[in-house]
Amino acid sequence: MAIIEVKDLEKTYYNDSVATPALRDVSFAVNEGEFVAIMGPSGSGKSTLLHILGFLDRHTAGEYRFDGKTIDDYSKEEIAHVRNKKMGFVFQAFNLLPRTSVLENVKLPLLYSGVKKSLRDELAQKAIESVGLSHRINHESSQLSGGEKQRVAIARALVNKPNVIFADEPTGNLDSKSGQMVMEFIQKLNEEEGHTIVLITHETYTAEHAQRIIHILDGKIESDTKVDHRHRARDHFKK
Amino acid sequence: MTLNDSFTTALAGLQTNKSRSALTILGIVIGITAIILVMSVGRGAEDLILNQVRGLGSRTIIIAPGREPTGPSSFAEISTDSLKSRDVEALKNKANVQGLKELTPAVMQVFTVAFENESVRKNVLGASELIAKILDIYPEEGSFFTDEDIRQKSSVAIIGSEVKEKLFGASDALGEKIKIKGRSFRVVGVLPPKGQVALFNVDDIVVVPYSTAQQYLMGINYFNMILAQSESEEAVPRVVRDIELTLRETHNIDDPEKDDFHVTTQADAAERVSAITSILTILLVSVAAISLVVGGIGIMNIMLISVTERTREIGLRKALGATERDVLTQFLMEAVILTALGGIVGIFLGVGFSFIASLVLSKIFLLQWVFTVPLSAVLLGLGVSTAIGLTFGLYPARQASLKSPMEALRYE
Description:
The complex is a heterodimer. Chain A is an alpha/beta fold. Helix content of chain A is 34%, strand content 28%. In chain A, strands 5-6-7-3-8-9 form a 6-stranded mixed sheet, sandwiched between helices. The longest helix of chain A is centred in the C-terminal third of the chain and has 17 residues. By secondary structure, chain B is an alpha+beta fold. Chain B folds into 2 domains: 178 residues, no CATH class; 179 residues, no CATH class.
């Protein structure tokens, strides 16, 4: 079943009556449990697309259904609720709260989801454990390495067990070894936990960890292909 | 997100910027300190003056010439010569005024009082012997002059304890001749130290028969005031009314608006003192309130900077599921915590300074000052500081809540 359905999607930015089209005639669907990479050079519109998919931005024409509903079917509060419960975000710049512990950072989405206070620590600890950072749980986010920061961000993205995890250039700010490790966790989330993953990247190598790659150029889908020989992050490590 | 969660989040946000938070609330602290100090000292002053007014005795009635002053321009009318002997006689008549116990006319002026080489300028009060009963002052040495002395216009004087100290030092004053405006007076009594009684500082006064003072010292045939005492406190309003009716009759006045005298009781005086001190307090509190507004603007300014600085944090929180309401509550809570904290610190400082002020006033200025902090001042301080947080925090918090998550996340 498709959790993401995009049909003839368009996005145009208006700046002093100058219209700049960012996305045109974009149509695709992502099924539950799929791992899709959206690839394209910078300026191609891939980040705009991810923001629209994550309900962080609105499209100007066409249709986008998430879990069967469009953004206009929801009130502002419901949109916040969907972002909180059904979506997880991993950003290129990590976006952890500064001067705040790993545990508190991972607990952040639980704060907005009505989970009981007594349960929050337990859920956050589990998420931190699953990215292998239990030993760093009380460290401040600024004391961590880039790779560790991104793993905290992944723990934060999955703590509410969302349907879809959106990852925006998650390895963009990392060295290749840390990047590999991050990709390993993302792959594991998809295969072992069954999370749907939408990954944005401009690196072919990173994109080839996904099952399917959608190429975008100048706001249009250029190709939508299955990956025949997927990279296995775990295998890479074993080398 | 529960209110409890918002509170914890707001507190964590403030803790990451402790020194700035402390500086931000300084304006509120100063404002609330000033308000508490002003209200506490204002109440103390009011109590002090009211106690002195009450020393007048609740049965004492003062009749003064001229219309009751209603403004600065009408003060001139006080010094008229409308109260004369015939008024005193009319008031003494039981058929005119019922329930009157004692009554004495009085004149007062400052004169040079001398003994041998010592001379001082003192208030000289001319009155009848009944002033002793009305003010409850009896000589500790010698005795008061008598009815006979009034009729004879005798040159006798009762002196206050400080006057005695200045002129005679440790030696005996009784029977000695002092000079007032060059005329010799025999000292017949010395008053015990008693401080302020009603309108007079009894320690620093010379009392002579009013008839003597009128004729030989002042050369006038009218009185500066008439002091009266009613039989009971309950009788005061009736006595006041009788006095007014009697004086209108002797002065041929039909229209009460045209009275050339006015009658004051302790209750009136107390009411006036309360009115004046509360106006003063309100005035001073308003001045202090200006600093609170300035402090509030400071809070708003810092909150706006904070909201801009934390744009990415706001974007992140929204991406992770915070509603506009959650973000608004968080930032509003930060502002309210800041100002309420400032209010609490200000209350403690204000109480501390008021206590120091009360020590200075009672130990150094020897006033009978009582340290009081009105509960209303504390509640006002807390209420106002919280309200400032809500008022000046609302705009920045709303700015924060309306940020688009995507733009906020992109913010560098």
